[in-house]
Amino acid sequence: MQSCPSPRTTGDFETKLNELDEIEPPDYEVSSVRRKKFQSYLEESFERNTVSGPVHLSSTELEEQKNFLMLSSLFHKLSFSGKASDFSSTANGAITSSETPQDVSTKTCSLEKMARFLFGVELNLKYKILLKRKVKLLLDEGLENLLLEPCNDEKHGTRIISLENIFYFQQKQNCVTVSLKGEEKLSLSFLKPEDASYFYHSLLRLLSQNYKTELDQDEPRLAEWLTGNWKNKPLVQKRFLNHDIILLQKIGQGTFGKVKLAFSVRRRKFVAVKKIYKEKLLKSYQTKTGVEKLLTECQVMMKLRHPNILKLYELYDDSKLNCFYLVMEYACRGPIMRLQDNRNVEPLKEDILRRIIFQVIQALCYMHSQGITHNDLKPDNILMCNDHSVKIGDFGESSYFSKSEKSKDWPTRLQGTPAMCAPELCLTSDKCPLTNFQYRYAPDVWSLGATTFFLATGRLPFEGQNLFEIYEFICVKPLVFPQRPRLSSNLQSFIRQAMTKEPPARPTIFELQEHPWLQTYTN
């Protein structure tokens, strides 16, 4: 087993970190103690400010170097509850399976069987003897519930069945019968016998007594999850982190790296791992550099804990591959919409839209109460889970205002996505007098209105031939709703209030959540 060296510095702060680790046993979640540790470490890192560089480096480059060194040290400190991180591939013999290579290569692993139902499998559902309808069967990301989602049937909503409510199940060819507590029986008729077998064995694994006893153990039993193969390749050859996170396959690509689907043995759930290459990070020369974005994202996500905000579980620094790992909550359905699909996407129905916006507002109310602004709210950054709950992600553009900064003026600067940008951010600071601290949260409200407009109509609220024209239209052009689809008067009122051009007249997020359009959903 190879491990990444973690540089340790002596001093009172290091002693304090060790004392915290001894007091609190690792729970493999970002606890309140670890979040406080994160904040205190950041503050001390900024105060230390002892980074020096060659004479030929400019002040901007020195600042970038200082941020990067602080970020690297931060990852070392917080990796695996403050301990050094281990990175290895089982191909080097660090972990072996009890099965022979021949057995492993011919057996599909339980993780691949479960992952198949993350994305849904269509089948025929029979219940109450003669009733039958077509549904999509899904597992939630936490592997705790079954979801039966109707196909082209608006009369029935998605049914959520807890795995704890399953009393008995059996398979016969392409049919799996599930008996629930309360004497209800569901007959799931799969289109392929292979899917029926996968589902049966997934339930067998999730409901087995061994699996339940594993949940109460402090140490993960990694080897038991490494039997079989993933996508026709032995799972024992996959890379894993700290005997916990098994990296499975690539599911996305970003500016500084890639996103991988992974499985956390300790948490017993699928997670997303963002792999960020340090070399690409240092080569970014944007308004806000990649190092600053990553530092901000970690700072904000470690502080926030809300059911509608994407969780950050762990941070890892891999010096061997020269990259960072962020282990995050996984939202299987991904973004609710993408701005790049402008005018080529079907608008959401109003009831569905109301449910989504209500959850987003709850998250924004919590963020603003914590002194945090998102600054890049858009459909691409609102992710949906299998149970139709939504999570706000991508906090790279966020701003955090401490208690001492809450009464200071707010310097305006252009940030976020241009089409979702508030009018006060489209103007230069010398032309925008509204820099008072009480309006610093107003851009998030505008972006929420623009996002709601896009989800309801399938098009951007303001379009232009270039960025300057878009900014000009945002500042001076009145908001016009298309004739199709026709929006209700309450929904139009909600969007108009959120997209009030003058920040003093724009409602706060707390005032907006009392709008009549949302009260319909609340009631």
Automatic annotation (TrEMBL):
The keyword Transmembrane does not apply. Keywords: ATP-binding, Nucleotide-binding. Residues 245-518 form the Protein kinase domain. ATP binds at K275. GO terms for biological process: intracellular signal transduction. SMART domains: S_TKc. One of its GO terms (molecular function) is ATP binding. This is Protein kinase domain-containing protein. It comes from Galdieria yellowstonensis.
